[in-house]
Amino acid sequence: MRFDTPAARLRTLAFVEGISFLVLLFVAMPLKYFFAMPIAVSIVGAVHGALFVWLFWLVWQGMNTRGKDVTWAARIGVASLLPFGTFFIDRGLAAEEAADRASRMAS
User: Is 0.85 surpassed by the pTM of this model?
Assistant: First the structure.
């Protein structure tokens, strides 16, 4: 994964945030409720929360600096709230990343 364009950073962070959400749901929460280990949710939840905020910071930047509209932001927002959601929007983010990289190469 690359970080050389704003679209690449957004795509990478959406992927990592999606992974953290799945770890929270399918690892940390079962540890808490079935094995009385609440520390797992505390740690993973904090990491996931930070990644979630960072993702929306990048979405906000995309709206302000890249001219993306509210529909684009809402699509990412809804996807980030659903398990596996960020993986479903990855194809669109990959296309944006390729377009962003192509425009930078042309400049």
Answer: yes
